Each structure stands twice: as structure tokens, then as C-alpha cells.
Amino acid sequence: MRFLLLPVLLGFTVITHAQLLTGVWGGIRTQNAGGCFPAYSTELHIIYMQNNSFIGNVYSFDNDKYTKINFTGKYNPLTNRIVIIENAVIQYNVPDSCVPCIKTYDLMFSKNGQAELLQGDWHGHEMGNNHDCQPGKISLSRLGKSTFPVDVYQNDSLARVQKNLKLQHRQKDVVRTIPVDTAFIKIELYDNAEIDDDTVSVFLNNTLLLYKKRLTGKPLILEVNVFPNTEYELMMYAENLGRIPPNTSLMVITAGRKRYQLHLSSSEQKSSVVRFKYEPDR
């Protein structure tokens, strides 16, 4: 799986588990004697979860030294055990004497009052070889806001399309800014009024989520998991103007118990944009 900066498509059948784990976790990762640093600040992003499996990335940092590594993971709801396996180093800046470590985490999820915790051990090997890293421990708690950019999940086929995509520069027309009090948002897109072959591509924070999809009386559906205190911008890009210009659509947004209906109009000069932000304390 591949994902790009700034998340996230989820099925409503897995919302219970997604509510449990998706989001930002931060704390300290320690390393036994012989490692590059005795302790690292760590921020873990779980951005997509389905059927007790999830993906995301983890930042380890100490001042200007850092690594960003993506991972896959599994959660056991019966035991609250979590296993996370790092896959590939995305970015890094470490001393010449150090090598980034590809890690496996064995964690337990727990709650202490209102605090949610991930705690356990880790071990790993150096990037590019099988030399063991000095292992250590890790303790993370759920955070209300990310220090680093949040990634938007994107499947492999859309990632390949976007890699070679060249869009016309168009003005953004902000239709509405919506504060929401839930992390889970359902977005439905219909053709507005007469169905006339309007076709759109949809981007969330510049990440392609729908490509050249025809609008009809049956909705195109996006189910989005948003992170707290992070701004999101959903853009509707007109691929054509249909038989009756401009390209028009009805967007229905369901956020918890609230429902919004928005009428959007896009053309070859402008793209309709809806912005929203999850504010847990509203």
C-alpha cells in the first residue's frame, strides 16, 4: 500500500476499531546502551484501519535528527495486543555514524481514566542489512494534534495515476467551511438536477481519491477519517462540463448527527472546494 501527504478512507463496518486506534500517538522510545540515542521522541500516525489491520507511519526525532518510516500493523481485540512492522524508510536525517533502524513493535493498548496508552517493546535491524539494532521500550499516549503532516490514504492504482497526472491550474472556489465534532465523515456526490454526464475527479488535501467518475443519481461515496485539529480541503475538479455547462453536483456530508447539503459548481476556470476541521472539544 502507498499513501501520500495529508486521512483516509474507511468502511463504516469497522468504525468501532477505527475509533479505538486511528489517530496520532506520541511519547518516548528508548534504546538500550550501544544505540545512537538513549531516547527518541516518537509520533505514530495510524491513518487507515480495516478488519483489525492498519497502516501508517512513525516519526522518531531528536532536534534536527529524525526518521519517517511507514508500517503495517495488526490488532487483537480480544487481548488488546498490537504488532507493528515497519516497512520502508521514507525520509531521514541521522549522524553519519548511525543507520536508521527498521523496527517491529510489540505493544499493548490500555486505558487509564481518560488517557489511552500504547506501551511495549521493540527490536529491529539496520536499514540495508540484517545487523540487529539495540532494542528498547516505547510508551505512547493519544495526542490531540500532530506535530507532523498527516497522510491521506491512497490505494496503489490512484497513486500511479496521480504520479503522471497533469491538472490545469484553476481558481479554488471555497463553498463552505464546516467544523465537525466527529472523526468520521461520510461524503456522497450526486449529479445536480438533470443527469448530463458530468465527470469529476476528487482530491483531499491534494491527494487523488476519485478519478474521472461520472455523476449520476446514485451517489459516489467517500468515507473519511479525519484527525483532530487538522485542516482538510476537499476539491471537486471538473473533467468535463457535461451536456449542460457548468459541471454541477450535490454533495451530502454526514458528520455524526449533523447533515449538510451543498450545491457545487465547477468549470474550466474554477474548482469547488469544501473545507472542514475536526474539533473534538466543540
Mean pLDDT over all positions: 87
Q: Beta-sheet strand percentage?
A: over 45%
The Rg value, from CA coordinates, equals: 21 Å
Per the principal axes of the C-alpha atoms, what is the gross shape? elongated
- Secondary-structure arrangement, i.e. CATH architecture of the largest domain: Beta Barrel
Q: Tell me the helix content.
A: under 10%
Q: Order of strands side by side in the largest beta sheet?
A: 2-3-4-5-6-7-8-9
Q: What oligomeric state do the depicted chains represent?
A: single chain
Given this structure, which CATH class of the largest domain is correct? Answer: Mainly Beta
* Cα end-to-end separation: 34 Å
CATH fold naming of the largest domain: Lipocalin
Q: Which residues sit in consecutive blocks of at least 5 with pLDDT less than 50?
A: 1-18
Helix/strand/pairing category: mainly beta
Q: Biggest sheet, in brief?
A: 8 strands, antiparallel, barrel
Number of domains: 2
Helix/strand order: EHEEEEEEEEEHEEEEEEEEE
- Contiguous helical run count: 2
The CATH homologous superfamily of the largest domain is termed: Quinohemoprotein amine dehydrogenase alpha subunit, domain 2
Number of strands: 19
Blueprint (SSEs and pairs):
Elements: E1 2-4, H1 15-21, E2 23-30, E3 39-50, E4 53-62, E5 65-76, E6 81-93, E7 101-112, E8 115-126, E9 136-142, E10 152-154, H2 156-163, E11 171-180, E12 184-191, E13 199-204, E14 207-214, E15 220-225, E16 231-238, E17 247-255, E18 258-266, E19 270-278
Parallel strand pairs: 11-19
Antiparallel strand pairs: 1-10, 2-3, 2-9, 3-4, 4-5, 5-6, 6-7, 7-8, 8-9, 12-15, 12-17, 13-14, 13-16, 16-19, 17-18
